[in-house]
Design goal:
The structure is a single chain. This protein is an alpha/beta fold and 129 residues long. The protein has a single domain, classed as 2,3-Dihydroxybiphenyl 1,2-Dioxygenase, domain 1, CATH 3.10.180. It is built from two helices and eight strands, in the order βαββββαβββ. It has a four-stranded mixed sheet with strand order 1-4-3-2, with helices on one face. Strands 5-8-7-6 form a four-stranded mixed sheet, with helices on one face. Strand 2 and strand 3 form a beta hairpin.
């Protein structure tokens, strides 16, 4: 068996294509409480916007998709972590976020979790660790 090394040292940014960048900023910053780390115009009408929970190393870029590609309604594969899944679920539900009806509890080793969707239908998972 060969041993492979990599020069990749961390996960930096994941991209969620959105049609309405301002609405995405409002959701991720105002509703979820993330920080806006970057908001940089580029390529004419485009903006590169990164958001993240305070202190997180990995960011989420919310930006328009490439020309000819659709935005929204994606399974992002993003998993967020909380220390109080029930409180977060209740808070998001009270804020009008499209959350699963209840927290899923499958038992060990699967942590309690639920999915929620941003205003464009992009799904993110939250787990309690």
């Amino acid at each position: 068996m060969s041993h492979t090394t990599t020069r990749i040292s961390r996960l930096n940014t994941v991209i969620v294509p959105v049609a309405d960048v301002d609405r995405a900023i409002e959701f991720y910053v105002d509703t979820l409480g993330f920080e806006k780390r970057a908001d940089i115009p580029f390529g004419g009408a485009y903006r590169w916007v990164e958001v993240a929970p305070a202190g997180a190393a990995t960011t989420i870029a919310v930006c328009p998709p490439p020309e000819g590609k659709a935005a929204g309604n994606r399974e992002t594969g993003i998993s967020l972590q909380t220390d109080d899944i029930d409180a977060l679920h209740a808070e998001l539900k009270a804020a009008g976020v499209d959350v699963d009806p209840e927290v899923s509890r499958m038992g060990d080793p699967v942590p309690p979790m639920f999915w929620f969707r941003d205003p464009e239908g992009n799904s993110l998972m939250t787990v309690q660790i």
